[in-house]
Design brief:
It is built from 6 helices and 7 strands; from the N terminus they run βαββαααβαβαββ. With 161 residues, the protein is α/β, with parallel strands linked by helices. It is globular. The protein starts with a strand and ends with a strand.
């Protein structure tokens, strides 16, 4: 047996979400998401403008120009959130999200929470906080399990071959 550490599944998928986040085109917050089922990646998503549209870096951020606080007035943002894009990607490819899990680098907003609940996601593992009490309330009332990512539980011993 070797003393080398092997990532747990939560660590592995959260690290993938952190890499996906790097593709974000949002000027205010970069978020990545990974949809998983049976330890297999179904789809990924990051926040940014819809496919084929100009990115916020090219046209500016209306929410930033209007000094709208984080977590408010989602409807005037031109970008889709990471969770929305992951669910849309799965739908585009005909992949069921029923009983899946999602790893997200920030807690879902209330709009994303509603989408994740209706998409049949059973577990959300999130890293950062997001100022949306309605999201927390709705997820607490749902059958969706939410877990704050705990990096201190992130490794397991690698088994010898």
């Amino acid at each position: 047996m070797t003393s080398e550490k092997r990532p747990t599944w939560d660590e592995y998928f959260m690290e993938v979400a952190q890499v996906v986040r790097k593709r974000s085109t949002c000027l205010r917050r970069q978020v990545g998401a990974v949809l998983v089922k049976d330890k297999r990646i179904l789809a990924t998503g990051y926040n940014g403008a819809p496919s084929g549209l100009e990115h916020c870096g090219e046209v500016g951020c209306l929410r930033q120009q209007m000094n709208i606080p984080s977590g408010e007035r989602h409807e005037i943002c031109r970008g889709a959130h990471a969770e929305q894009n992951a669910i849309a990607q799965a739908a585009l490819l005909g992949v069921s999200t029923r009983d899946s899990e999602i790893y997200v680098t920030a807690h879902p907003c209330s709009v994303c929470a509603k989408i994740l609940i209706n998409a049949g996601v059973k577990r959300i593992v999130f890293e950062g906080v997001y100022p949306d009490p309605l999201s927390v309330e709705m997820l607490a009332c749902s059958q969706v399990k939410t877990e704050k990512y705990n990096p201190s539980k992130k490794t397991e011993k690698k088994e010898a071959k």
